[in-house]
Fold this protein.
Amino acid sequence: MISPEVIRKIKRIQITTSRVVTDLFAGQYESVFKGRGMEFDEVREYTPGDDIRSIDWNVTARMGHPYVKKFVEERQLTVMIILDASRSCSFGAVRQLKSELAAELSGVLAFCTMQNKDRVGFMVFTDTVEKFIPPRKGMRHVLRVIREALYFKPTGKKTDITGALEYLNRVIKRRVVAFIISDFYDGDFKKSLSIVNKRHDVIAVTITDPREREVPDAGIVDIIDAETGEQFLIDTSNPALRQRYAEHTKRLHEERARLFQSIGVDYIDIRTDESYIKPLISFFRMREQRL
């Protein structure tokens, strides 16, 4: 039985999604994502004119004469929503927590996928993969994805993006569009992200709170690292400290952007104090123009 609170949140996401679909996915969804590639269909005997690169050498060796692999265009798009539920995402100092925004984005993407009659899967990770829902179609399935995005309670605290990407590569064999929704506060995940992006179409959705970019003048503040539990005091009335912090976080975000660009991963920057509609629309328009 779904609680009234869950129903209210789902209804709100549906209303938001209808606007997003009108503004964002009308005509652009097909052109942006459905360069889906080819999938294996069958093996048949070689005929003159066939590309020799399509010869299936294993079958040819067994049968004694040439056979080729036949491929067809993939008719169905699969979207995987990969949600970071680590403790660093349970932060928000302005309008909402990063985790709440990430859950709403998951719902919007799931509804958009359903309205375009494609399949959607869902994964939740912290320092381990905590939940995996295989890709399927239909309203019942999408409602399950949204419920999990909104109310799943993780057991892990830290972030392991590499582990999540390796899991995706193991369990998903066909090409998918993978939205990774995270603050990307992790160590070196460049190699694993590059490997996954060669097989799948990966989009990084970065969630940031403005207080992670700059510290207000609030005097002595007790800070606790959500993932490690480390606790320390800082004097935010010190202008030099605030300046160093702002420069440090700016450098981190610039390095993250360069990392994505260096391996060809598209990314969307989302902030907790701003609407995500405009960044999504800008991303899709940029991608459509590039294609």
